[in-house]
């Protein structure tokens, strides 16, 4: 933009002093508007010697309306208003948002200009907002920078897993083994998954014994938290919400998805432990009440496992098949590949919590700052049903457009960061933390997002309800999750809320998992 069409001096609302265009020829200089060094014609403050802004930035419109019909890079239905700073207190109040075009933060750019829509908590860097491929090309020559162009060919990834899974009834095991014609795990001689006979339930009132032609009429129910009916698969710990499925012919609460009966008895070359074969096991050796910490998602689990006993390496059955590549709606059109991080200076794109060195994540090779926890990618379903709402709740990754109030969780009643993944009902206009909406929809559960390490309900891989007899107490104890009403441990005195506990239903005796473990080992 030539000097002949520029004003030689201007009063700009971003600065209290007169700005003067003293040099008519282009120079290389730092711009205090966008925070970048580039070449062009600049305005400078004669009072503040270190304040200069590029002429393109100086005359940017105060409002931008970016629509699909006018810009294919990104769009927003409301006008974006220019702001001449983004102070840290304001960023903190808005949960430290990231640019909605490039996904980089504003943390060290509080004195640079941005475009924003406060109503939708939508913020973009100055150059991202004007959709310029390179900083400070004229806005009239925009070709777009925010759009995620597909970076892979479908033909090269015929079995690519597209996430999130549609709803909480789906998981990677269903994706891999549903309607698989392979042998069932409990029909092989290699493994004994359950001590009793297992029967097939294929209608609501008829079950047929495996290997037998006899049948009996008996009512069977599916998982339904609204009616306080809990039916969780003992292998993957996900709810059984459709038939057919398998159950124990005796009185114990052992059930399996049909596809979980087709799990392979061993896994070769698992990316977390390629040196040894991992074997399928229904009970992990030397683990009290079969509770082990999965070495991939780091969540406690008492379901089936794939493990190497020699090295003490165990993973839950879903993490036994962690995919090499995925796509995810949180970062659409880009391939995300399984990697082990070589540094810890990353945060998850979904939950905004830390990623740890040496652990798996799904990473975008095209975007350096995009990584996702495996558990966030694989365990947070696209829609869920919750006992608190009659409508489906959708997984959201950004603030909701036209949201009319502050964000808070309807479950724990604490503040909610809308820049991290959360569930939202568009009909009732209310939201919940992803960690406060257990994916298995237990009928009685107490949650609080501040207690969990990331966006996943901590006990999503734990099946409660089993009865245990322990030394030192005459009554049987029920394995469950502690709530506020359970008070403190009868042995060590710690607060039992949110903990795994063993509770007597006949008296007030209640102890935490660790104390019960010590009692049984003594």
What distance lies between the first and last C-alpha atoms, to the nearest angstrom? Answer: 82 Å
Residues in helix, %: under 10%
Beta percentage is 15-25%
Name the poorly predicted regions.
1-5, 133-146, 206-217
What number of structural domains do the residues give?
4
Strand order of the largest sheet: 11-23-24-27-28
Radius of gyration: 28 Å
Total count of helical runs of at least 4 residues: 6
According to DSSP, the number of beta strands is 36
For the biggest sheet, the summary is: 5 strands, mixed
Query: What overall geometry do the principal axes of the alpha carbons give?
Result: elongated
Mean pLDDT: 84
Structural class: mainly beta
Domain DC1: 74-128, 224-260, 272-319, 389-437
InterPro entries: C1-like_sf, DC1, Vacuole_Formation_Reg
Protein name: Zinc finger, PHD-type
Keywords: Repeat
Topology:
Blueprint: E1 9-11, E2 18-20, E3 27-30, E4 37-40, E5 42-45, E6 52-54, H1 55-58, E7 63-64, E8 80-83, H2 88-93, E9 114-117, E10 122-125, H3 126-129, E11 161-163, H4 172-177, E12 198-201, E13 206-209, E14 215-217, E15 245-248, E16 255-257, E17 266-267, E18 278-281, E19 292-293, E20 300-301, E21 305-308, E22 313-316, E23 325-328, E24 336-340, E25 346-347, E26 354-355, E27 360-364, E28 371-372, H5 374-379, E29 383-386, E30 389-396, E31 422-425, E32 430-433, E33 467-468, E34 477-481, E35 500-504, E36 510-512, H6 513-521
Parallel strand pairs: 11-23
Antiparallel strand pairs: 1-2, 2-5, 3-4, 5-6, 7-8, 8-9, 9-10, 12-13, 12-15, 13-14, 15-16, 17-18, 18-21, 19-20, 21-22, 23-24, 24-27, 25-26, 27-28, 29-30, 30-31, 31-32, 33-34, 34-35, 35-36
């Amino acid at each position: 933009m030539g000097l002949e069409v520029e004003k030689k001096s201007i009063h700009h609302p971003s600065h209290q002093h007169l700005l003067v265009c003293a040099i008519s020829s282009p120079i290389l200089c730092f711009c205090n508007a966008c925070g970048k060094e580039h070449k062009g014609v600049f305005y400078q403050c004669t009072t503040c010697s270190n304040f200069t802004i590029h002429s393109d930035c100086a005359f940017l419109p105060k409002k931008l309306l970016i629509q699909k019909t006018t810009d294919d890079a990104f769009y927003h239905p409301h006008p974006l208003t220019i702001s001449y700073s983004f102070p840290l207190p304001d960023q903190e109040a808005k949960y430290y948002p990231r640019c909605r075009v490039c996904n980089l933060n504003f943390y060290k750019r509080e004195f640079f200009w941005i475009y924003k829509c406060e109503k939708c908590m939508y913020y973009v860097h100055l150059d991202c907002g004007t959709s310029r491929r390179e900083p400070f090309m004229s806005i009239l020559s925009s070709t777009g920078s925010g759009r995620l162009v597909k970076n892979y060919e479908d033909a090269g990834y015929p079995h690519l897993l597209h996430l999130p899974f549609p709803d909480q009834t789906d998981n990677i095991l269903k994706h891999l083994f549903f309607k698989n014609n392979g042998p069932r795990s409990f029909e092989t001689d290699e493994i004994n998954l359950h001590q009793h006979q297992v029967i097939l339930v294929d209608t609501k009132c008829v079950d047929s014994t495996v290997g037998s032609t006899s049948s009996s009429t008996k009512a069977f129910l599916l998982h339904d938290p609204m009616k306080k009916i809990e039916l969780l698969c003992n292998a993957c710990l996900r709810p059984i919400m459709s038939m057919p499925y398998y159950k124990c012919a005796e009185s114990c609460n052992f059930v399996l998805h049909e596809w979980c009966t087709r799990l392979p008895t061993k896994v070769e070359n698992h990316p977390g432990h390629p040196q040894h074969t991992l074997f399928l096991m229904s009970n992990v050796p030397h683990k009290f009440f079969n509770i082990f910490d999965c070495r991939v998602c780091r969540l406690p689990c008492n379901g089936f496992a794939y493990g190497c006993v020699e090295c003490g390496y165990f993973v839950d059955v879903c993490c036994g098949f962690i995919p090499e590549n995925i796509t995810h709606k949180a970062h659409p059109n880009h391939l995300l590949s399984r990697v082990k991080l070589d540094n810890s200076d990353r945060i998850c794109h979904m939950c905004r919590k830390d990623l740890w060195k040496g652990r798996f994540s799904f990473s975008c090779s095209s975007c350096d700052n995009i990584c996702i926890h495996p558990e966030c990618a694989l365990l947070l379903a696209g829609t869920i049903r919750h006992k608190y709402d009659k409508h489906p709740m959708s997984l959201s990754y950004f603030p909701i457009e036209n949201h009319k109030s502050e964000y808070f969780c309807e479950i724990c009643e604490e503040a909610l960061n809308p820049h991290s993944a959360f569930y939202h009902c568009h009909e009732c206009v209310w939201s919940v933390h992803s960690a406060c909406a257990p994916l298995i929809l237990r009928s009685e559960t107490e949650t609080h997002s501040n207690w969990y390490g990331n966006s996943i309900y901590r006990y999503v891989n734990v099946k409660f309800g089993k009865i245990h007899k322990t030394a030192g107490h005459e009554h049987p104890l029920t394995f469950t999750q502690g709530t506020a009403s359970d008070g403190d441990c009868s042995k060590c005195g710690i607060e039992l809320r949110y903990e795994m506990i063993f509770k007597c239903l006949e008296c007030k005796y209640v102890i935490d998992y660790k104390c019960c473990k010590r009692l049984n080992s003594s």
